[in-house]
Design brief:
Strand content: 35-45%
Number of strands: 27
Oligomer: single chain
Length: 473
């Protein structure tokens, strides 16, 4: 809304008046700067996570690197006896049926699927129990190492290891046997009548591969991208019609009533964006006049597809919090080491109470002890926000007050991985639908003026398992 003109002949015009008839003013880079404390999420999105789209229904791909997830489990119990020279080899007929809880996209699933990553030549480690005399009851916990010789896909729910060479058995350390004792007890030649017992659902994992010199190439496998879509929502806020008389009238308090209302409507528009980015539910509906698209908000999307952790104000402790952080910062989910945590005033008050029984009070006491995994400090954020920075042994949490977390959300906080969210304004064919002001939208025969603020944009939320809603009670 510049009103500066060139005062030297020959110079290009440096600005223009807002009164230019039906002029569209691109305001996209500046609307986020209006009172950033009132809309912290939108301020961060506009500043550090802005990624234009050229389609109002934008598609994006999620990649979860499965090389961090090559874990599996046995579907049914098995007992392997002493096969003499073959030791505890898996031979034809044993058929170790295995599955995993990750699908081909690397997403955690509740129904087991076949592990596509098991290949001939890989070394696997599987939990088991070692029976020295063959009698069930004298078992010792151990891990058996095998090289896969043959593996077959059975169906979508399981695969089977039909042949594998036994390599080594390592007894697990116990209270009466330290690591060195357990390593010495590693069994290379099973004794007579000894057995390995594999219970159902025991865990296994790939621990690399080993091939002979001059050997042939192995089989391969690949993960897949997961496809998601988001929607650009059309936001409109009208500066109500002012008659020509009202525009020329000097008012008490603030003399220019039109500009006062204009400022309020810009803030209203910005807060509409903040509300939608927090609480919107994504839909793409058809109507008689055209499709109506609504963007997803980070809170309901995370509740539906991400993680939710619950705490109680009266009993939540440092231990509870750290236990949750193990999952929140799990690297195999694609987490970064930094989280933006938007929290209600009630949650922040609880966090910052220094009473002897409070979470922070106990934490600050623990910080003076050896082995504490949490450090808390108050810092000034880059966008004018007061930030409570909590450094855990897993990553950093940056707590900021979210004024819109009130009422039904007064006990809510949300941990957002900013690497996996983006503000997507619609821009294509040289046209921008980011926040702009369209002037003089009233009919041409009206003695007055009406303007409109318009934005067409949506929120992209990827890898929802990297975001976490904290619910307090």
């Amino acid at each position: 809304m510049a009103n500066i003109y060139s005062i030297n002949p020959g110079e290009a015009v440096q600005g223009t008046s807002i009164n230019v008839d039906r002029r569209i003013f691109n305001f996209g880079e500046r609307v986020a700067e209006l009172a950033p404390q009132q809309s912290p999420f939108f301020s961060y999105l506009s500043s550090v996570a802005k990624k234009p789209t050229d389609d109002p229904v934008f598609k994006f791909l999620e990649q979860r690197h499965q090389w961090q997830r090559r874990n599996f489990q046995l579907q049914a119990a098995k007992v392997i006896g002493d096969y003499g020279t073959d030791a505890f080899a898996i031979v034809t007929g044993d058929n170790f049926y295995v599955d995993c809880l990750y699908d081909k996209f690397g997403r955690e699933v509740s129904t087991a699927v076949a592990p596509e990553f098991l290949l001939v030549g890989q070394i696997v480690a599987i939990e088991c129990e070692y029976d020295a005399d063959g009698s069930d009851g004298s078992d010792v916990g151990a891990i058996a190492y095998y090289k896969i010789d043959t593996v077959e896909a059975v169906d979508a729910a399981k695969a089977k290891i039909t042949a594998a060479t036994f390599l080594k058995l390592m007894l697990k350390p116990t209270r009466t046997a330290d690591g060195a004792t357990a390593a010495t007890a590693g069994i290379q030649t099973p004794v007579s009548a000894s057995k390995l017992r594999f219970d159902d659902n025991v865990k296994g994992q790939v621990v690399g591969s080993a091939f002979a010199e001059g050997g042939t190439d192995p089989e391969g496998w690949s993960d897949e991208f997961y496809n998601r879509e988001g929607y650009c929502q059309i936001f409109k806020t009208a500066v109500p019609l002012f008659s020509g008389t009202a525009l020329a009238t000097r008012y008490r308090g603030i003399s220019n009533e039109y500009m006062r209302v204009y400022q309020e409507k810009l803030m209203e528009h910005k807060m509409d964006l903040e509300h939608a980015m927090l609480f919107g539910v994504g839909t793409d509906d058809s109507s008689a006049t055209g499709p109506v698209r609504r963007t997803w908000g980070i809170v309901p999307y995370t509740e539906a597809y991400g993680k939710v952790k619950t705490f109680q104000y009266s009993s939540a402790t440092y231990d509870h919090f750290i236990d949750s952080m193990e999952d929140v910062f799990a690297p195999e989910s694609g987490n970064s080491g930094e989280k933006l945590v938007l929290a209600s005033r009630k949650v922040l008050s609880w966090l910052n109470k220094l009473g002897g029984s409070s979470f922070l009070g106990n934490t600050m006491a623990l910080n003076s002890q050896v082995g504490s995994g949490l450090d808390i400090q108050n810092v000034q954020g880059n966008f004018g926000h007061a930030v409570t920075r909590v450094s855990t042994i897993y990553g950093n949490l940056n707590f900021i007050m979210e004024p819109l977390f009130r009422g039904i959300h007064e006990n809510t906080a949300i941990m957002i991985d900013l690497n996996n969210v983006a503000y997507r304004p619609l821009m294509g064919n040289g046209v921008s639908r980011d926040t702009q002001i369209i002037t003089n939208v009233q009919n041409r025969n009206v003695d007055g003026r009406k303007d409109m603020v318009l934005t067409e944009a949506g929120l992209e939320i990827s890898l929802p398992e990297t975001h976490t809603v904290l619910q307090f009670s």
